[in-house]
UniProtKB/TrEMBL annotation:
Highest taxon of source: Bacteria
Name of the protein this chain belongs to: Chorismate synthase
Taxon lineage: Bacteria, Pseudomonadati, Pseudomonadota, Alphaproteobacteria, Caulobacterales
Family: Belongs to the chorismate synthase family.
EC number: 4.2.3.5
Length: 361
């Protein structure tokens, strides 16, 4: 299987399967002398790990990360050496027997049929490589990327739509995200959203959601014209996340309804002589290059395909079957997708920062 690596100068390669002994990643291209310990990575993994509330899968994984290479104690603490950083997370709570019935059948909405068609073999235990379990490796790599970016770049994301229920743009509060089990970007919607998702969960069903992303502190100049556009690479990073089916940058699809006057982000000079933008329909990217404004995006997650309702499908023997997916699954995969969205943003931006530095100093 190819295409397990993402990035150019800052590259991550993830490895492992959902029900294998471990998962992990190799981060290549990280500059030397950046302070890095497992304590820098673990808090972000704790946000993503399963079993944290009744609204996510009850698989119990500690998701304890181990740094196997690429750091050294230079006498003042652990720092990166500039060599590949290998990170490993052990799997400890696999229940492969839950997937025995779908060893030969293809679950609707999953990667089962596509993997079997491409490779002639698939790991049916939790989806193997196609499982969202792989995203823990991305979150670990994203923690390293954040260290490369430094504290001046602030990356925040939160759920702004759960099924048909939306948070108004002016009511979005990213500071509220980690104070509730739904990762909702507003404390006010939590009681109603919890009641709604409880209904979905108890019915054995699932629902989709939208995660909003905001990044501040990115200076003007990151990204490249044409085939290295920052917004294109950000969209590619988001689309690579399991269950993501849509990405908007800035105004996104709403721009199709705007006039040229409304869509243009007008400028004036600030007191310091720098430009001040009067709006941000472009989402912080102009011509594929960061403008210095906040980077904004929205990421749409489909409903979890694993549900208890019987669904029609076929098996490898060419027979029609009805499937009910057993196991432990998220009623809304987007909730734990919030730290993954942040991680992929960090990885894209760390790569953009290093490429910018390499070209223009």
């Amino acid at each position: 299987m190819s295409h397990n690596t993402f990035g150019h100068l800052f590259r991550i390669t993830t490895w492992g399967e959902s029900h294998g002994p471990a998962i992990g990643c190799v981060v290549d291209g990280c500059p030397p002398l950046i302070p890095l310990t497992e304590a820098d990575i673990q808090p972000l993994l704790d946000q993503r790990k399963p079993g944290g509330s009744r609204f996510v899968t009850q698989r119990q994984e500690a998701d304890q990360v181990r740094i196997l290479s690429g750091v050294f104690d230079d006498g003042n603490g652990m720092v990166t050496t500039g060599t590949p950083i290998s990170l490993m997370i052990e799997n400890t709570d696999q229940r492969s027997k839950d997937y025995g019935e779908i060893a030969r059948a293809f679950r609707p909405g999953h990667a089962d049929y596509a993997y079997q068609s491409k490779y002639g073999v698939r790991d049916h235990r939790g989806g193997g490589r196609s499982s969202a379990r792989e995203t823990a490796s991305r979150v670990a790599a994203g923690a390293v990327a954040r260290k490369v970016l430094g504290e001046s770049v602030r990356i925040r994301a939160g759920v702004v739509q759960l099924g048909p229920h939306r948070i108004a743009d002016e009511a979005i509060d990213f500071d509220a995200v980690h104070d509730n089990a739904l990762f909702a970007a507003s404390a006010e919607v939590v009681p109603a959203w919890e009641e709604y998702l409880d209904g979905v969960r108890k019915a054995g069903s699932s629902i989709g959601a939208v995660v909003a992303l905001e990044v501040t502190g990115v200076p003007a100049g990151w990204g490249a014209p044409l085939y290295g556009k920052l917004d294109a690479e950000l969209a590619a990073g988001m689309m690579s996340i399991n269950a993501v089916k849509g990405v908007e940058i800035g105004a996104g699809f709403a721009a199709a309804e705007l006039s040229g006057e409304d869509n243009a982000d007008e400028m004036r000079l600030g007191e310091d002589g720098r430009p001040v933008f009067l709006s941000n329909k472009a989402g912080g990217v102009l011509g594929g290059i960061s403008s210095g404004q906040p980077l904004t995006a929205r990421v749409a997650f489909k409903p979890t395909s694993s549900i208890l309702t019987l669904r029609q499908s076929i098996n490898r023997d060419g027979e029609e079957v009805d499937l009910r997916t057993k196991g432990r699954h998220d009623p809304c995969v987007a909730l734990r997708g919030v730290p993954v969205v942040e991680a992929m943003a960090a990885i894209v931006l760390a790569d953009a920062m290093l490429r910018h530095r390499a070209q223009v100093g």
